[in-house]
Design a protein that fits this description.
The chain is of the alpha/beta class and about 230 residues long. About 30% of the residues lie in helices and about 20% in strands. The chain is globular and about 40 Å long. Bound molecules: D-xylitol-5-phosphate (DX5) and zinc ion (ZN). Zinc ion binds near residues 21, 47, 79, 188 and 208.
């Protein structure tokens, strides 16, 4: 909890990691928001938005650098919702990201982009929007550590889960088995106590939750309830 985790400890085991999204943190007191979780978290999910790929603007490398200073042992899961992601790899890597997740829709040269993330010494993630066929990830699955299935259209917290996206995690799960690969399956958007168990049954290894955790009345209680539902 709240530190480097053995990702193999959850993969395909019917358990999952919880990655609270800092989009729902108190931006005047991010450290306090994380501390209010009382250690009931695994990764910190950082939503980077550029105002082009998505209609919102959030955090840059400076924020990740500060997080790294404030939480030296935390696993920083950086979700890059930006056009031209290749321009940001170096900056987020040197800021202290542990995993950088780029969108399949944002790059014309995926092999080059994913290789550059690997070369920067950061774990490699690939995200797919709800309306993007999951098959778009198939040619490069051997190059990634994680596939992020978006269950809302990215841009904002607090949106409703899109149920059609659930098939994608099962498809990825089966493909991973068939090809003997090891990537993790992460889901992001509209996730909370009402659906987290079902998502784990559908193959998810990492669940991102923003409003259901950091937006809750008692974030510590909400996080530990979800953690226990994730078999943690
Ligand atoms: C959406 C972001 C999510 C968001 C999730 O663009 O990628 O990480 O913070 O927020 P909730 O859990 O409130 O849907
Ligand atoms: Zn996200």
């Amino acid at each position: 909890m709240a530190g480097p985790v053995s990702v193999g400890a959850v993969r395909g085991m019917g358990r999952a990691l919880l990655a609270p999204s800092l989009l729902s943190a108190d931006l005047m007191n991010v450290k306090g928001s994380v501390e209010a979780l009382g250690g009931a978290w695994d990764w910190l999910h950082v939503d980077v938005m550029d105002g082009h790929f998505v209609p919102n603007i959030t955090f840059g490398p400076g924020f990740v650098r500060s997080l790294r200073r404030g939480f030296p042992d935390a696993f920083l899961d950086v979700h890059l919702m930006a056009d031209a992601p290749e321009d940001f790899v170096e900056d987020f890597a040197s800021a202290g990201a542990d995993l950088m997740c780029v969108h399949v829709e944002a790059s014309r040269h995926l092999h080059r982009l994913l290789s550059s993330i690997r070369e920067a010494g950061v774990m490699v993630g690939l995200a797919v929007n709800p309306a993007t066929p999951v098959e778009w990830t198939f040619p490069v699955l051997h190059m990634v550590d994680l596939v992020l299935v978006m269950s809302v259209n990215p841009g904002f917290g607090g949106q409703k889960f899109i149920p059609e996206t659930m098939n994608k995690t099962l498809e990825l799960f089966r493909r991973r088995e068939a090809e003997k690969l090891e990537f993790l399956i992460e889901m992001d958007g509209g996730i909370g106590e009402d659906n987290c168990r079902e998502l784990v049954r559908n193959g998810c290894d990492v669940l991102v939750a923003g409003s259901a955790v950091l937006g809750a009345k008692d974030p510590g209680e909400a996080a530990s309830r979800i953690m226990s539902m994730l078999g943690r």
